[in-house]
Specification:
Largest sheet of chain C: 2 strands, antiparallel
Order of helices and strands of chain C: HHHHEHHHHHHHHHHEEH
CATH superfamily of the largest domain in chain A: Periplasmic binding protein-like II
CATH class of the domain at 77-114 and 190-342 in chain C: Mainly Alpha
Structural class of chain A: alpha/beta
Mean pLDDT of chain A: 86
Number of domains of chain A: 2
Largest interface: B-C, 121 and 133 residues
Oligomer: heterotrimer
CATH architecture of the largest domain in chain A: 3-Layer(aba) Sandwich
Strand order of the largest sheet of chain A: 2-1-3-14-6
Largest sheet of chain A: 5 strands, mixed
Number of strands of chain C: 3
Chain lengths: 516, 378, 342
């Protein structure tokens, strides 16, 4: 019996002392009071004029391990220090866990980081909760940022409810890349519609494209679950569904929030997506974008759909076999579009497709939308100012225009001046042809009045990354028919909407489209 | 907590011990461990149980958990999440009825034998009833999802990984251990080599196997092509994908079995073996009657540890196949991980708790029936 | 002819047996080494050489490049690599050693002493835990709640807790311990994060070490239990007749006899902590990131960077191999076997 008492005393001693240690120990070093005062209260966050106005300030910025995206931040950090005195720490975590890291840190009130370089589609999660700072007042005062030079689409995409929450350093959208030489040889035109795309892919599949005597692939579009398949499918589906301009939106019916997936248009997109697999590598169902990109750059694919990265990567002769052989076009479109009332596909005419070019409706899909910097709302004002100033510095034309032309950075153009000024690209090593080819693809897409934005409403992870991803995977694996897939997707999306409150979701959705 | 000396020990040991420190020795030896485990286990256990009963949302200035009762669990057994978790059930056929009937009969015999036995205790009865029910339900699930059009859910897939994986790891580990305890020149070289796979970080192993199994740029591509398999890829068939993952798992964890068994074999006394050799026993008899009994306790521990660890398999399916084709290679932990990534922390915790339930069930069976019986019958 | 099948002594195989053994061992060694060879080869490739199809032998079918090695060791990533490597090299051995010390003593205690934790005491404890949670959700700070429920626990234990005579045994304790590893890390990582956040220990070695020690203790205990129970109790009895204390017996008799087991167990725990990913990811924010994070991070937006990954895996595995080579001789030297061996 005696030993038990001693045990208890020991136990109590340990617990009590640990409590004491914890409560009297180090005061909160990482959780300052949530600053609620408006930024107007302090000096204007000027960025170039200041003579070391952030001397002694250290800012911690979280992003994922590079080289792309993180590298320019790390490289320009010391320059920024020289300019303003603020020390910049770039903290990197694996890309797959970035969202969870940002979330746990901010939501639990730990606030180890002053800023995040993340996906602008995430601001819809963080902004309403007041976890990231409203940057509108900063942007308004910041002439050096040249906000008006940022393409309108990206200005919108980095805003939420009319307020700017993140500063874009990168602009992302899907484009189709093709092999100029292979298509010419076969007497084929670059595809205008998805049917053309399939025809070209079919015609070139099995042909030797890189001169090694082995048959290559007609099309490489990654299909692995848990990667990016949910973006590719919307790139294909958008022109079938959205025809009345960017603010129509391809995901839900803006009348009642019913998903636009159980209809002929989306089913057609599913079939196209699956059919591209017939003209691709045998293990395409397990390929992510890195794999398909690698195959295209090594000259093994006639066609691929990708973000802007291929342009700068294709001109790097050391790792690319397709230097000056790479053409870029906006995503193919469709000559038939969805009638939202009946769920049937109807032919394009002046009313059904007001923005059609040569009878083809395009809806370039800005999937993901680029990397952007956001400022933690819970840190000291001085920290916020310095963090904003750093993102602004990175996004200013002087820095950004040099970064977007380099493949290594992973930054793609998002400023109008960046694709208007071809000289910068030529200076960076692009040939005249390559620069024109690449930029025209981007320009076509960004100038389209019918561009489609990524889904940005609460629960978008559940809609897209859980349900759509799983159903798409089962569909690609042949476990579901097209009808079953569309029906299942419809049902599961309805269930999420129902659970989350239909009216609220609809308001959010319309808000992101700029509808009232 | 009382500390007494083990009854099997002679009393004289106890009487000699004196001094406060010696009286407390039992406490001092065990307390730090108990405290450390309590410190890091109670809160997470309760917290994740609570989270599994709630819906997680980001809210103003932080997050909120809305209590939803058993909804997350109910979802796991119904609708499309049910298909994901339990699998797609094929209609009954004579085959499924026959197989399931046989299993039911076997379980009934098992129960009947216990009832006919005079010594019935409440604990034993409840345990056996649970066991029968659990095995009955899981075999019902397996017979309907394994054949003719059924598809395995994440629960069954995990069971496949665990049992097939451990079977091969143990057999291979034991075989290699027996070979390398022989007096062969160079055996130490082999021992170090055989340890290597375990030392690579699991994520690394997963990426390495992804590289090796790539059918267009992996090292075995020419072999595939020589067999005319240019248009075939293991990733498109559920069972070939699972096999690939199992190969990775076996490659990585055989060393664990191997090295513990080597240590066990090395520390067994040689005298009985020498005596047996003198009596003319052959090597199989020596293994069966001397070596095997002496390594059974360690083997059982090893299998239990691997059982618990293998249920948590996630890196290999995540990296090698992303859970595909379809959901054919997703394990339970991966299932939980998908929900977790999508912020559905409640559903994620519910899956984790179902996993905990499964692991506990199988480890209890293992510890109470198999381990005790094999160790006792020696 | 017969001598080909005859072994010279019990542990030495016959010549035919030896050849067969070598064949099997060699085959398995190839299975182990080929993937590693592929890693080494890949680490000298650039992205083009990886994507264009399999190349096997440097200088013969492709021109090796040191780009990946430079990038990791002296280039952009070098700062991260070195910091994370140092962290791993600090955290893993310390955790493994602590886990081994606590685990081995606990395992010894579970083998040699009898514990009878009362069911009543356990129920009281669980009750007080629930109480403290209720108190926290009612708005008290966790410090106060913990003290209140602890005081209550103490009082209840002396009164109600003694009423129930039913008690558990050593096997139940051991099973409880191993059951701590049953929940998948994904379910516990956020609660553990919150614990260390409250203690202001995030991003410190302490947090990582505590977590690793606690999470590996069950494995140490279970493995060591078997090794220790194999040690003949007679040796300990003799020593105690000679007047040695329990500590002395443990230190000078049990531990030396358990060396093969200790070494094998240490190696595991070292490997587990060396390679742990998820907890390291969450408990570190910058300073104490470990190397597995860097490896996982090589699958970024541009797909897996095979060449960088290969370099990192190789860098990471070398120290463990060295330790394994050093420790392997202790596993071999089964002390109980004595001089008669061979």
């Amino acid at each position: 019996m005696k030993s038990k008492n001693v045990l208890l005393k020991l136990l109590s001693l340990m617990i009590v002392s640990s409590v004491l240690m914890a409560s009297c120990g180090t005061p909160a070093t990482t959780a300052p009071e949530a600053a609620t005062d408006a930024p107007e209260a302090t000096e204007a966050p000027a960025t170039e004029t200041a003579d070391k106005m952030y001397e002694g300030v250290t800012i911690d910025i979280l992003t994922f391990v590079g080289p792309q995206v993180a590298e320019p931040l790390q490289r320009r950090g010391p320059d920024f220090t020289a300019l303003t005195g603020a020390t910049v720490n770039i903290i990197t975590v694996p890309n797959s866990e970035l969202y969870q890291k940002v979330l746990t840190d901010a939501v639990s009130g730990t606030n180890s980081y002053d800023g995040y370089l993340f996906a602008p589609s995430w601001i819809v999660d963080f902004a309403p909760a007041g976890l990231i700072e409203d940057l509108t007042p900063y942007v308004e005062k910041d002439a050096a940022l040249e906000w008006d030079d940022v393409a309108p689409f990206f200005r919108d995409f980095n805003s939420y409810g009319g307020k700017v929450y993140s500063i874009p350093l990168d602009g992302d959208m899907h484009m189709v890349y093709y092999r100029i030489d292979s298509l010419e040889e076969a007497g084929l035109e670059p595809p205008k519609t998805w049917d053309d795309y399939l025809a070209v892919a079919k015609a070139l599949h099995g042909k030797d494209l890189n001169g090694d005597g082995e048959g290559d692939y007609g099309s490489c579009i990654s299909k692995a679950p848990g990667q990016q398949s949910y973006w590719w499918i919307w790139s294909i589906a958008a022109p079938y569904i959205q025809s009345q301009g960017s603010n129509q939106g391809p995901f839900f019916n803006t009348k009642d929030m019913t998903p636009l997936v159980n209809n002929e248009a989306f089913k057609r997109a599913l079939e196209v997506y699956k059919e591209t697999g017939l003209y691709g590598p045998p293990d395409e169902t397990n390929q992510g974008v890195g794999d398909s990109r690698g195959l295209f750059l090594s000259g093994r694919c006639a066609l691929t759909m990708d973000w802007g990265d291929i342009g700068p990567l294709a001109i790097d002769a050391e790792n690319s076999k397709v230097v000056d052989k790479t053409g870029a076009i906006q995503n193919p479109g469709s000559t038939e579009v969805l009638d939202w009332e009946t769920g049937k596909l109807v032919a394009c005419d002046a009313t059904t497709c007001p923005y059609a070019v040569d009878g083809v409706n395009h809806a370039p899909f800005a999937s993901f939308g680029g990397w952007a910097g956001a400022v933690n709302a819970a840190v000291d004002q001085k920290q916020k100012d310095a963090t904003y100033a750093f993102f602004s510095y990175m996004a200013q034309p002087a820095q950004s225009n040099a970064d977007v032309v380099v493949g290594k950075t992973g930054y793609n153009p998002f400023r109008i001046s960046q694709f208007e000024n071809k000289q910068a690209w030529v200076d960076a090593g692009f040939s005249q042809v390559a620069a024109e080819q690449y930029l025209s693809g981007i320009e076509q897409s960004l100038n389209s009045p019918n561009m489609a934005a990524d889904l940005r409403i609460p629960k978008n992870h559940e809609y897209i990354q859980v349900e759509l991803d799983r159903i798409l995977a089962e569909y690609i694996a042949g476990n579901l028919t097209t009808d079953e897939a569309a029906q299942q997707l419809y049902d599961s999306w309805e269930a999420i909407t129902e659970e989350a409150d239909r009216e609220a979701q609809l308001t959010f959705y319309k808000g992101t489209l700029g509808q009232k | 907590m009382d500390t007494r000396n083990d009854e099997t020990q002679p009393a004289r040991l106890h009487t000699i011990i004196s001094g406060t420190a010696d009286r407390l020795v039992g406490t001092i030896f065990l307390l730090p461990t108990v405290l450390a485990l309590l410190f890091l286990s109670i809160f997470p256990l309760i917290a994740s149980l609570y989270v599994s009963l709630t819906k997680f949302d980001i809210a103003l200035g932080g997050f909120k958990l809305t209590f939803v009762g058993l909804k997350n669990y109910k979802d796991l057994f119904t609708g499309s999440e049910g298909t994901h978790f339990l699998g797609e059930f094929a209609p009954n056929t004579p085959l499924t009825w026959t197989v399931f009937g046989l299993i039911v009969i076997a379980l009934a015999i098992f129960l009947a034998r216990y009832f006919l036995n005079a010594r019935i205790s409440i604990g034993g009865l409840i345990g056996r009833l649970m066991l029968t029910l659990g095995l009955g339900l899981s075999s019902w699930m397996l017979v309907h999802t394994l054949w003719n059009g059924g598809r395995l859910g994440t629960a069954s897939i995990t069971l496949v990984y665990v049992f097939v994986g451990i079977f091969f790891q143990y057999i291979l580990g034991l075989g290699l251990a027996l070979l390398t305890v022989q007096n062969l020149p160079g055996r130490r070289f082999f021992r170090v080599i055989f340890l290597l796979p375990m030392m690579i970080t699991p994520v690394g192993v997963a990426y390495m196997f992804r590289m090796l199994t790539d059918t267009s740029k992996g090292p075995f591509t020419p072999i595939w092509q020589a067999f005319g398999l240019t248009d075939f890829s293991w990733v498109n068939n559920p069972w070939s994908a699972r096999t690939a993952i199992l190969i990775g798992d076996i490659w990585q964890w055989t060393p664990f079995m191997f090295i513990v068994l080597v240590a066990a074999l090395e520390s067994q006394p040689t005298e009985p073996i020498e005596a047996a050799t003198v009596d003319g026993a052959n090597s199989w008899q020596i293994f069966r009657h001397i070596t095997w009994p002496s390594i059974i306790p360690v083997s059982m521990t090893l299998i239990l540890i691997r059982l618990i660890e293998a249920f948590k398999i996630v890196d290999l399916p995540n990296v090698m196949t992303n859970g595909g084709p379809g959901t054919a290679t997703q394990s339970l932990t991966y299932h939980a991980y998908i929900n977790w990534r999508a912020l559905d922390l409640g559903a994620s915790a519910a899956v984790a708790y179902m996993l905990l339930f499964l692991v506990t069930f199988f480890s209890m069976i293992f510890v109470n029936l198999i381990r005790q019986q094999t160790v006792e019958t020696l | 002819m017969k001598r080909w099948f005859q072994s010279k002594s019990i542990n030495t195989p016959s010549p035919v047996g030896a050849i067969l053994s070598y064949l099997v061992l060699g085959f398995w060694a190839v299975l182990i080494l080929f993937p590693l060879y592929w890693l080494i080869v890949t680490s000298f490739k650039n992205s083009g050489q990886v994507n264009e199809g399999p190349f096997y032998i440097p200088f013969v079918d492709f021109k090796p490049t040191l780009d990946a090695w430079k990038y990791i060791l002296v280039g952009d990533l070098s700062k991260d690599t070195i910091r994370n490597f140092t962290n791993t090299a600090i955290v893993a051995p310390i955790s493994a050693l602590l886990a081994l010390i606590f685990g081995a003593t606990a395992a010894y205690a579970l083998v040699r002493f009898e514990y009878r934790p009362r069911v009543g005491a356990i129920l009281t404890f669980i009750g007080c835990v629930i109480l403290s949670i209720l108190l926290v959700s009612a708005g008290l700070t966790w410090q106060i709640a913990l003290v209140v429920s602890f005081v209550l626990f103490f009082i209840l234990l002396q009164t109600i807790g003694r009423r129930f005579k039913r008690a558990l045994g050593n096997n139940d304790i051991a099973f409880w311990m191993i059951s701590q590893r049953m929940l998948p890390p994904i379910a516990v990582v956020i609660p553990i994060y919150l614990i260390f956040q409250q203690l202001h220990l995030l991003d410190t070695y302490t947090a990582l070490i505590i977590t690793y020690v606690a999470s590996n203790l069950p494995i140490v205990i279970w493995l060591m239990r078997d090794y220790i129970s194999n040690i003949p109790i007679e040796l300990e009895e003799c020593a105690s007749i000679d007047g040695a204390s329990r500590y002395r017996i443990f230190w000078s008799i049990v531990l030396p006899l358990a060396v093969p087991g200790l070494v094998a167990t240490f190696l595991f725990v070292l490997v587990f902590t060396w390679n742990e990913y998820l907890l390291a990811l969450f408990l570190s924010s910058a300073k104490v990131q470990t190397l597995p994070l860097t490896i996982a991070a090589q699958n970024a937006t541009r797909g897996p960077q095979w060449w960088n990954m290969s370099v990192l895996i190789l860098i990471m595995i070398v120290p463990v191999i060295v330790i394994a080579i050093i420790l392997e001789r202790y596993i071999t030297r089964g002390l109980l076997i004595g001089a008669v061996k061979g």
